[in-house]
């Protein structure tokens, strides 16, 4: 029995040992397995990291290259833009300065305008001076004509051999200019001055002469018997023939410009005239009453107008038309016979 | 009137003519008498007995119609209503120039009043006959026909177009060369009435090759020929820049400037307006006006003339010349125009229109003026609304130009600017601040200024 108890306790101790060993073995195994697994996990981790690293590197390299591309592109574009701006700047400056606001052309234009103005001004000045000269000449001529006319009228003041005229005084060294004029002029005859326009009135008043007289030059005048002028001149008849050649207009000129139009218009007018019922113009109402002509009756109209038989009386008196009720006040002494007029005692007079 | 009327129907033609002449003289004298003639029913009698009468009667009848028609539109309307226009047109076809003259004179007086009457005249078919009348050799007839065409075309573009369609422009243009002064007056006035309505009509007139012949009219001895010539050029120049350019190229500006210089009074007015229109179109044309020495005559007009409307026109023209660029404004300012304009603006005797025009001209020129010596005198007596612009110009110029700043102080301009009272926050105050900022603080203070004014030539370091 003791041995059984001792063996029990030995076995128990051994069992305990076994348990302890078992637990130790388990521990060791678990630790080892844990190590293995951890190593495996670590390995996996590493691999994963490696893969991820590689993949991310790849992605970002791609991204970066794109980034670089765009940055390069932008840089290029900026550069091109700047260069384009420079070109446009130059071009626009050139274009505006040459075509739109060309300073030198404007300057030349203004100079040209000034030159032209000077020319115009000088020409106008010349024209003005010419006009003034013309006027002066006209005045002078008029004065001369006046003086000549005066001289002709006063021709009798000319000095003779015996008697010196008033303009030729013996105390003067030379005669007066008026004297010279008198000597030159013909005496004025006492003919009637011609009327200004002889043809204006007489001819046109003739009922038959409706048109002014025209002088046609169709036939040239016969040549006078004078000396032929010296020199290589053309034959006179030839010249006259050429000069007075009658006009031979073409058909286009001879017909009026708007002849079809005119003819059509005339046609229309004729048709309208044909179709009209009467020729009196249609008068609007307001002037209707103004158109009435007075028709005198046959009874009282004679050859020379209306007959006044039975209407107007010789001694007719119309008291309504009298200015005042009373008779006029007499100033002069009355004439007896005429005082009786209207104041007779008979009824036939009827004035009383 | 009742006594004359039966005489018109008398057997003897001389009595008829004398009666008609008497009626005409009565109607000519007074409008009331003309009305009495119309009321006495004389016109229909005149009209219907006309076609078989001789030319003296026709002349006398046309004289009566003219005398009645000239007083008022109603009388002219009465004439038209009794059918006198057809009779006048028949007279226009007559071969005697005296009859034609009387008829066209009557037609002219009728057409003068308003556009309906002109239209009635045109409808009666008078225009082609008038154009034929212009070609006649008698000067008096030409004159009257030209003035009638002008009276017809002055009312509206359609009437002017009708006159042009009848071929009037070519004949009128030829007659500019005629030496008779009164004829030239009428012809130029007729052409200007045609040209004033539209660009096309003006171009038609120009195509008739009136330039440079018209410029000789500007040198004529007759004042009204000059005036009408200037009016014609003005009516052409006012439409488009191309027409103005054409006139400038033909030397028209120089001729007009000489014309302004040689005349006095209302005769100058169309020339001044023409320069204004030309300068208003573009800056090149304005520079052409300046180069042709246009500013001194305009300035002389401004000073010498007594009439307000001529001064107003001169002020407007100067404003148009100077408003384009600083170069133009400088040219105007150098001619010492601005003090004159200011004086007129502040003068109490000037009419409102004149004041408004000078104010606008001053404003336009001042906004572009960079010529400071001309602006200085204006500082001293300008009213506030002009002062704003002057000070504004100074405030733009002074920050950049040191010499100008020095001059500004020595001439007392800075002191004057200090004395201006402006509301804070207004534009004027801003300008004053800008000017004050150009100078150091001590300078701006009043005592320093007074010292400087007392000492005179004070050398300053800025």
TrEMBL record, chain A:
A GO MF label? calmodulin binding
Which of UniProt's keywords are assigned here?
Answer: Calmodulin-binding, Coiled coil, Cytoplasm, Repeat
Per UniProt, subcellular location reads as: Cytoplasm
GO cellular component assignments? cytoplasm; spindle pole
Instruction: Tell me where on the tree of life, at the top rank, the source sits.
Output: Eukaryota
Q: Which GO terms describe its biological process?
A: establishment of meiotic spindle localization; mitotic cell cycle; spindle organization
One of its Pfam families is: IQ
SMART domains given in the database record: IQ
Coiled coil (UniProt feature): 117-150
Region (Disordered), start-end ranges: 213-235
InterPro entries under this entry? ASPM, IQ_motif_EF-hand-BS, P-loop_NTPase
Q: PANTHER family this protein is in?
A: ASSEMBLY FACTOR FOR SPINDLE MICROTUBULES (PTHR22706)
Q: What is this protein called?
A: Spermatogenesis associated 17
UniProtKB/TrEMBL annotation, chain B:
Q: How does it assemble?
A: Interacts with SPAG16 and SPAG17.
Question: Where's it mainly located?
Answer: other
GO biological process, any: neuron projection extension
Which Gene3D superfamilies does the protein's record reference?
Leucine-rich Repeat Variant
Summary of the function given for this chain in its UniProt record: Important for structural integrity of the central apparatus in the sperm tail and for flagellar motility.
Kindly provide the name given to this protein in its UniProt entry.
Answer: Sperm-associated antigen 6
Where in or outside the cell is it found?
Cell projection, Cilium, Flagellum; Cytoplasm, Cytoskeleton, Cilium axoneme
Q: Which organism is it from?
A: Bubo bubo (Eurasian eagle-owl)
Q: Which UniProt keywords apply?
A: Cell projection, Cilium, Cilium biogenesis/degradation, Cytoplasm, Cytoskeleton, Flagellum, Microtubule, Repeat
